[in-house]
Predict the 3D structure of the following.
Amino acid sequence: MALAGGAGAVTRFVISRLFAVPFGTLLVNLTGAFVLGLISGNFIFGTGFIGAYTTFSTWMLESHQLPRRAALLNLVGSLVLGLAAAQLGVEVRLAG
């Protein structure tokens, strides 16, 4: 679990630095939601890697630092897209 969490945190750091705020965090959270939907039931990878890879606190801090309209768009857009990504992951898993 610790190794999976460490790998997830390092992966998040690398990916989020490749994009401007808040797009790196958005990409990390959307891909994490998709993969979690895809692998639901795999406790170690889901909790360890994906739990450390995705980041609620950074999403909240970045949203707080954005201008009001951009913050609202980031919050609502991330939530809607995240739910869609998780659902897509579940559908891909069930279809396979």
The mean pLDDT is 95.
